[in-house]
Amino acid sequence: MSKIISIKAIQVLDSRGLPTVACRITLDNLLTAGVMVPSGASTGAKEAIELRDGLDAYLGKGVLKAVDNINKIISPVLIGQDPSEQENIDNQLIELDGTEDKSNLGANAILAVSLAICRVAAKNLDKSLHSYFADIYKNITGNSVKPNLPMPMLNILNGGEHADNNIDIQEFMIIPRGAKNFNEAMRWSSEIYWNLKTILKSKNLSTAVGDEGGFAPNLQSNEEAIKLILQSIEKSNLEPGKDVYLALDCAASEFYKDGKYHLTGEGRSLDSKDFADYLENLVNNYPIISIEDGMDENDFDGWKILTKKIGSKCQLVGDDLFVTNKKIFQEGIDAGLANAILIKFNQIGSITETIETMDLANMNNYKSIISHRSGETEDTTIADLAVGLGSGQIKTGAPCRSDRVAKYNRLLWIEDECPDLKIG
Ligand code: PGA
Ligand code: ZN
After folding, report:
1. Whose CA is nearest to atom 1 of ligand 1?
2. Which residue, of 126, 160, 192, is where some domain finishes?
3. Is residue 142 part of a domain?
4. Ligand 1 pocket test: which of 319, 369, 407 has the largest number of ligand atoms within 8 Å of its C-beta?
5. 0.85 surpassed by pTM
6. Is the CB of 212 within 6 Å of ligand 1?
7. Dist. CA 308–CA 373, nearest whole Å
8. Quick one: which of 20, 197, 339, 397 has the fewest CB in 10 Å?
9. Domain, as residue range, for 181
């Protein structure tokens, strides 16, 4: 048995140039592994708490307190322990924090340690990180998963909180579902992305990009964004609705106020029923097969209307709605909300809890999508997580900017190394 001899955290920068937590763990055989945690911008209200210093440095966004909590509080407890005891270690971290929302030590501190433990344990066993994730899923839940390569959902046009344009819907994604493998999926996506750039340029629209690498032009309406993407698919000699499909993340909590969905870009305000009609109309007219956060995170009646209306023909994904939290997700399942869940490990703050939430989805026939955050780093852990847990879907931005592309590149390597893995 190998033992942990050192746990060290420092403050590093994320893709927005804001601080985040990096953590490195070393074993007594001198094997070492490190991770960095991501950070959201359009966060769900019930997410675990990301500890920020609130001091002058970095406009209050420093994470030195979380770093200190790792170096001074967590490290002394875990030193000497066996890194292959993932569930046990995560439970100790949760207990040490002692709060429901991890506000004491910080979800950013706890997750950094939880992920670094996985990485160093996998290395110690001489296993790929993705196969190690499949193993600990079995250990934690007693159930098996079938690893696969995820179908990518690439956010190539950004709006909402992720861009300084007038588009209300946060993400317009392409899903290259007709691609025979991950490699081909990425080639198609890159070609579509570049053709979209050419089309935007030809219309004198901005080709500056948002937080997730997608373009962020000012447009007349959400529908105009969809039409531009369809053109770029056709310009790539691909067929919308056959080779490539579309997905939206409305992030509707960001524009829901006083019982109405305010589409300011289009100068319209709609109640839940009308907004559900608006989305149904989009699904009927365009090859949209997935809609995330189509309703506000507390508008359960709206979610029920939407799920009833289009749940049989469209994947309806709860992100801010479920916040990767087993308890909140179970309530949503019981109420019949949505039919899929977005999995973001920093929403809940440990790998064990992330796996438990994922298992709950599997047990209830909810689909799942492993996801990045809008604030990312070059860390590629989610790529391995998507493969190991066999989620079949990953959402990690445009095929542009190293913080996004790092994950896709890791998946290209996994596909090359594991020719038996199928996509989707
Ligand atoms: P966030 O957005 O990382 O800024 O919260 C991503 C999403 O809503 O899916
Ligand atoms: Zn979302």
Report:
1. 40
2. 126
3. no
4. 319
5. yes
6. no
7. 29
8. 197
9. 151-417
Assign residue 45 the CATH number of its domain: 3.30.390.10
315, 203: one domain: yes
In short, whether 251's Cβ falls inside 6 Å of ligand 1 is yes
Report yes or no on 137 lying in a domain.
no
Here the CATH number for the domain that contains residue 181 is 3.20.20.120
* Pair 100, 207 in one domain: no
In a shared domain, residues 357 and 279:
yes
Determine whether the shortest distance from the Cβ of 43 to ligand 1 is under 6 A.
yes
In angstroms, what CA-CA distances link 102 with 4, 25, 51, 94, 111? Answer: 23, 21, 9, 7, 10
Determine the length of the chain. Answer: 424
Q: Is residue 343 part of a domain?
A: yes
Residue 93 lies in a domain: yes
Rounded (to 5) percent helix, strand, coil in the chain: 45, 20, 40
Tell which one of 373, 382, 394 to mutate to probe ligand 1, the residue whose CB is within 8 A of the most ligand atoms.
373
pLDDT tens, position by position, 136-184: 999 999 999 999 999 999 999 999 988 888 999 999 999 999 999 999 9
Q: How far is the CA of 336 from the centre of ligand 1 (A)?
A: 23
Q: Sign of the C-alpha dihedral, residues 194, 198, 203, 205?
A: positive
Tell me which residues are annotated as active site. 212, 344
Pairing label, strands 367-371, 393-395: parallel
**In this predicted model, what pLDDT tens digit does every residue of 9-41 receive, in sequence order?**
999 999 999 999 999 999 999 999 999 999 999
Residue 112 backbone zone (phi > 0: left; psi -120 to 50: alpha; other: beta): alpha
Q: At what angle do helices 222-235 and 272-285 cross, to 10 degrees?
A: 20
